[in-house]
Amino acid sequence: MTVGQQRAWDRHWAELGSEVTALPTGPLDVASWFGRSAPVVLEIGSGMGETTAQLVAAQPEANYLAVEVYKPGLAQLMLRAEKLEVTNLRLLRGDALVLLREHLEPESLDEVRIYFPDPWPKKRHHKRRLVQSASVALIASRLKPGGVLHLATDWENYAEQMMEVCSGESQLRNRYADAPGGWAPRPEWRPVTKFENRAHEEGREIRDLIFERI
């Protein structure tokens, strides 16, 4: 980590963060951690926090959970959050599927966001992709009725896989099933990252998918 990231980690991690493996057995008491009851948004894979910090700042009414494996990314997110003076963010380091399976109760989340997950572009690595039938079924079970699963990717093959998997999940319905291809329009509130700009420059189309818990 950079010096700035380490300082942010030292200042904020004890209050704002936890290792998934260090969580007590059973459901995470989200309301107690935030000190309030509020809609809960879970972002899986917050990366370096460029988008996440802006989303958190724009949604002060939500309790925002960000789960990420990359320690410098979480530290950078805390730096960004500090500058924006947000108070509605908590961070978890580790496996998102373990968090969902062991520490988040069914029908406890208002939204799950997965933006630009690792595409594992080589075919032999596709099994490592996050968005698979089993993981989407787990995510859907943790959404409240009417809760939202929002995905975005710039890899055409992965977008098609996401569409197939989510469309095949009986707990979900596509909010934009009547739109061309079933793709959602790009929400204006989702910040454009440097990676998204690079994808545009390289001619890759960004796809958004928005599914709702039935």
Task: Please render the helix and strand layout as text.
Elements: H1 3-16, E1 17-19, H2 30-34, E2 40-44, H3 50-58, E3 63-68, H4 71-84, E4 89-93, H5 96-103, E5 109-115, H6 133-142, E6 143-153, H7 156-167, E7 172-174, H8 194-201, E8 207-213
Helix pairs in contact: 1-4, 3-4
Would you list the SSEs in sequence order as H and E? HEHEHEHEHEHEHEHE
- How far from one another are the termini? 42 Å
For the residues shown, what is the average pLDDT? 96
Q: Name the poorly predicted regions.
A: none
Total number of beta strands? 8
Oligomer: single chain
Description of the molecule:
- There is one protein chain.
- The protein has 214 residues and is an alpha/beta fold.
- Helices cover 37% and strands 22% of the residues.
- It contains eight helices and eight strands, in the order αβαβαβαβαβαβαβαβ.
- It has helices at 3-16, 30-34, 50-58, 71-84, 96-103, 133-142, 156-167, 194-201, and strands at residues 17-19, 40-44, 63-68, 89-93, 109-115, 143-153, 172-174, 207-213.
- An eight-stranded mixed sheet has the order 1-4-3-2-5-6-8-7, sandwiched between helices.
- β3, α4 (71-84) and β4 (89-93) form a beta-alpha-beta unit.
- α1 packs across α4 (71-84) and α3 (50-58) runs parallel beside α4 (71-84).
- The longest helix is centred in the first third of the chain and has 14 residues, at 3-16.
- The radius of gyration is 17 Å and the shape is globular.
- The model has no long low-confidence stretch (mean pLDDT 96).
